User: Fold DNA polymerase III delta prime subunit from Dissulfuribacter thermophilus.
Amino acid sequence: MGKMKDLVEVFSRILESERTSHAYILEGSSPAQRIQEAERLSMLLLCMARHTDTSAPCGECISCKKVLARVHPDLILIEPVKDLIRIDQIKDLVSGLKYPPLEGQVRCIIIQEAQKMNSDAANTLLKTLEEPPSNNIFFLTVGSIDQLLPTIVSRCQRLSVGVERISPYAVEAPTELSRFELYVNEVTVNGIEDNESSKIIEKRNRIFEILSLYYERGKEAAAISNAFQLSKDSAQERQDFFELLLCLKVLARDLLLIKTVGNDAELDNLLINNEYKDFLIELSGKFHESDLCQYSFQLSELENMARRGINLEYAGNFAILFWFGEHGKDRTS
Ligand SMILES: [Zn+2]
Assistant:
């Protein structure tokens, strides 16, 4: 309970300040804890006694009671259905936002596990976040912001849920661990908390070696044959395949970030594969933002398909061939 109060306090301070936003990302901790926090913050916004005690919802007024009973008409919860948030759900939501809130001054919208939006849903939400109808406050819950499109992240203010962990983005990251390694230690691959980070790092390094062969050293045939070998090696176990997807996802994420932030000093603190910064900047010029977005979603879909038992080598080839040929060549716009 102590932690929950903390975030409510942080949030009420934000509300009193000039730094308010119409959209917040609640990241970290567990899915259950994140949703609980999102509901608490919504309760704070909807509470009718809030003006007398700004640091917490009263928990007693009719509005708070409706939130607790999950029947408040101005609190909308969008949940994944069969592990996916679809465009219809977001479209239905958006069409209702043009009407004013029913009971109070504000409407709260919680998008639960926002990384489960498919690409159409995410793009529809993005348009709304870019020009939000007034009196609507969004809360997106997510394990880690790397799972969301940078374009969505840039529209939201971030709040962290639960215990502060060592951030992979901390400037004073211990030098003996690379930021990628810190990142790998933090994420869960296929439900396994303790990843063998050395195996993942080896895959990551092979991917960069392949890309360097292809884009820097002009050895295209060698690059492609190494790529097929990597895909084959990653098809031995499902865990290996998930590790390969993770590396590719982070790569696409870094490139999208460069597209969003530009070659800025800030980049140093944001890239996960930061030791490859110069090469990544080079590479980002060869891919379109929309292709990279779409690719990120395809990787998530491959992950789901792998759980249902598709041929891993075939899926790996598909995932890795994105980086060659029509996508990569001469697309410097
Ligand atoms: Zn209340």
User: Anything to note?
Assistant: The chain has two domains: 2-160, 179-321.
